[in-house]
Specification:
Blueprint (H helix, E strand, L loop, with lengths): L1 H21 L8 H5 L12 E3 L21 H13 L5 E8 L2 E7 L9 E2 L4 H14 L33 H5 L9 H8 L9 H9 L15 H12 L4 H13 L5 E2 L13 E3 L1 H12 L3 E2 L2 E2 L3 H7 L4 E2 L12 E6 L4 E7 L2 E10 L3 E6 L4 E7 L6 H13 L2
Helix pairs in contact: 1-3, 4-8
């Protein structure tokens, strides 16, 4: 027994020495990289792997992997394998346990200070913005079941397609508005941007879509976040852009980001944001803490519970980032969910997800969060979490 423990100690000390030598400084973007498009950023020559993340005074508590939780040797061995064979094209992996950042790593195009494209993880941030509007009293939880058009007073209902009044805010939040435009219709509308500025964007949807029926209001991963952003713009004081900055980004201490503008003139709601990996941790912490940040309730607990719940099952035929240990893919208010299996037990996970491999994964039962950035749509990230990360945090 003593021999085994001694050998394990040597392994851990060896890892500490190797990673300390390799990772004195987290990789920061050069001036040229900051101005470059993402695909032009060169790959890191050496991965940055840190089991003792630095306290950067950015509002994120830090700890020590192993001491504050997790099997250190297991995680470091896994990280070594990722570095040696990064076919998932991962750019960063961060692990938070019991509220502390215990592991931080960057690969390939990952930089600690370079906001990474978020793709559809943006939808989860849009969901948080709606929740913030509810917390401040500009909307109520009961409003989720009201017709979406009731919040938009610049529309002309005489031109609506049949069934437009059927679309509730709840249905738009779960990708079930029933709106469907052809590519040709979209292209024609965007040729003249003036006809889709502001609420005219919604007007165009409700004039040119196929009729909205009970049958058409099924899960369809398309334009619904744009409808929700219009509601935010309509009910909050000032603009949605200023509201999101003041009431969420500023409060979370997120200053190094990009949030682009949609064709309507409103903030993009379904994609087109960039966040650093550490700022993704902040969004995840807000969700993990049931809407609280530094003790202040920014988003209602009831809204967060609903937003991150499995409101509907989307099926297991095409689970993004999935594998043999990932099942029961579900959807809430722009948050995904799935069961992750390890051994004979399954763990419910909630996640913000974006194309290319962007994830904020929350596993409440283990008080565990994993943040991932990558540039590969053909990823198995949820499966990797199930088979390689979970066992390191299961006692």
């Amino acid at each position: 027994m003593r021999t085994t423990q001694f050998l394990m100690l040597i392994v851990i000390l060896s890892y500490n020495t190797v990673f300390a030598q390799q990772n004195d400084t987290a990789p920061e973007a050069t001036a040229e990289e900051t101005k470059s498009s993402f695909r032009d950023i060169p790959y890191l020559k050496k991965a940055f792997i840190d089991p003792t993340p630095m306290n950067r005074k950015d509002g994120i508590p830090v700890g020590v992997l192993g001491t504050d939780g997790g099997d250190k040797a297991m995680i470091l061995e896994w990280a070594k394998q990722i570095e040696a064979n990064n076919d998932g094209k991962f750019d960063s992996f961060l692990i938070v346990h019991k509220g502390k950042l215990l592991f931080e790593s960057y690969y390939l195009r990952g930089r600690i200070d370079l906001p990474h494209f978020q793709a559809s993880a943006t939808k989860a941030y849009t969901s948080m913005a709606l929740g913030r509007a509810i917390q401040l009293g500009y909307l109520t939880m009961e409003d989720l079941d009201k017709p979406l058009i009731s919040f938009l007073n610049e529309l002309d209902p005489t031109k609506f397609i049949e069934g437009a009044e059927r679309i509730t805010l709840h249905q738009a939040m779960t990708m079930r508005s029933g709106i469907n435009l052809s590519k040709e219709q979209r292209d024609a509308l965007e040729k003249d941007p003036t006809q889709i500025k502001g609420q005219r964007h919604v007007q165009a949807f409700l004039e040119h879509s196929v009729p909205v029926t009970e049958a058409s209001q099924r899960f369809d991963y398309k334009d619904d976040p744009r409808l929700v952003m219009q509601v935010i713009e309509a009910v909050v004081p000032g603009t949605a852009k200023d509201f999101i900055k003041k009431e969420l980004l500023d409060r979370l201490g997120i200053t190094n980001y990009k949030w682009r503008t949609d064709v309507s003139g409103l903030p993009n709601s379904g994609s087109s944001t960039n966040m650093t990996s550490r700022d993704m941790v902040k969004w995840g912490t807000l969700a993990m803490n049931k809407g609280k940040w530094n003790g202040e309730q920014l988003v209602p607990e009831a809204f967060l519970a609903k937003a991150t719940s499995r409101i509907l099952l989307t099926g297991d035929d095409d689970v993004y980032g999935g594998g043999e240990d990932v099942s029961k893919q579900g959807y809430g208010y722009y948050w995904w969910s799935a069961d992750l299996k390890y051994g004979d037990k399954t763990y419910f996970s909630r996640s913000a997800q974006g194309g290319g491999g962007q994830y904020i994964i929350l596993i409440e039962e283990l008080d565990l969060m994993v943040v991932v950035t990558a540039h590969n749509n053909d990823n198995r990230t949820l499966q990797i979490i199930a088979e390689s990360i979970l066992p390191a945090f299961i006692k």
